Structures are given as structure tokens and as C-alpha cells.
Predict the 3D structure of the following.
Amino acid sequence: MSDPAVGSALPTWLSPVVAAASTITVHELTRFMPPDDSDPRRGAVLMVFADREADPTTPDDLAHRGELLLTERAHHMRSHPGQVSFPGGSLDAGETPVEGALREAHEEIGLEPSEVEVFGELPELWLPPSNFAVTPVLGYWRDRGEVRIASPDEVHEIHHVAIAELLDPDNRINVRHPSGWTGPGFLIGPGRDVILWGFTAGIIARLFSYLGWGEDWDRARVRDLPDHMLQGEPRQTDLAPDPAQNTKLEE
């Protein structure tokens, strides 16, 4: 694994993300920062970019060449069942965000840390309801091997999602929670029947916006969360009014 500050041998289609990692601020991703006296619990997620098979004549840019590796939380979990997320979780004592994100990805989906080149981190994001501070770690799956559901108690499905599909206006939605909270979402999966929302959708949507990507989409298109994703949801008063504040990391 190379130094996150280097990234010199990364593919050209990843260049905009590499540049953004050194310039984006927490305010472009969320309205919340950990107060000095909050002493939050800390966690990390691994935002894994990978090459996607494409026609050689396809433009050499992220939208056509790249994909993100996402997981769908097990449907029987007592909280946030079925939620789509980046691999990740709480940090163990003494772990850095990079170490924790790589460890969690290996435990959840068998992703070998040696296959991932970490090239940066996004600013730490704070979840006020649970006093959780989460660092998104950016990685490139350079030596692509195999992934699998290594922890079926946690993971229902692994999704390889093309960046082009996330940018497609037909796959953009607003997601409405029964509390009345509405935020950005994406339709993913072979049948576009899996809803990506909450913390992970918020990071993706705001990063894409910062990079100037995407096209206009119909913001009047609203989907309610399906029943299987509402089991064990926090009370309405526990929900923060921000798309990046609902995450599986609360356990």
C-alpha cells in the first residue's frame, strides 16, 4: 500500500478524485463538525474505486471507466437493515482510519488490504444523534482480486456500481423517511430496485457535486423507504436533518 499523499501511478480517470481529496472541506460534505468537547466515538469507511471493463474507444474518464464497491447490509439486522453502505465500522483501540477501514472491508467482504492503494481521506464527518465521527478513506483497487460475503451476519449483497450509472439522471431520486426527512438517493442493482440513501448517498452526491459532475435530474421524483429498511429505525427525534447523518456505524 503506497503513501496516501503520493497517488502518482493512479489511473488518469481517478485524477479528479485525487485532487478533490486535498481540497474539499467538511462544509462541502456536511453541516456538522464534532464540537471540541464532544469526545465522539470514531469510525471509518472505505470508499473503494476500481477499474470497470469498457470498450477501448470509451473516453478515459471516471464516468466511463470507474466503479464503486458498495455493500448491502443484511436484512435481518436489528438496525438499518438493507442499507447500502461503504465497507467500514468502528475503530479498534489504537487504529488509524486507514487501518480500520481496510480491516473492516476484509472482515465484511474479504477485500485484501494489500490489493488496495489508499490515496487520501475525506474530512471527518460527525453524526450528532450517536456522537459518531466517521472518516471516509479513499482507495483504488489496483490489484483486483476476488471479494465475497465474508460476514453474512452483516452483509446481504456486494454491489459493483458503475460511476456512469450513479450519474445517470434516470437513477437519481429523493428518498423520503416516515419522519418527513427527505434526502438524495440512487437506484442501483441489476433491476434498479435497490435504494442507496442516507450517509453513503450523501457523501457520493456531495462529492459528485463538488467535482461538477452529473446532469440535471428530476428532483420531484420521490421514493419512500421500503418497509424492510425501516425495522429498528431510530425515533424521529433521533434523526438529524442532513442526508449524511444516517449510517450503519451506530452499532
In short: Confidence is low (pLDDT under 50) at residues 1-7, 234-251. The radius of gyration is 17 Å. Helices lie at 15-21, 62-65, 97-109, 163-167, 198-211.
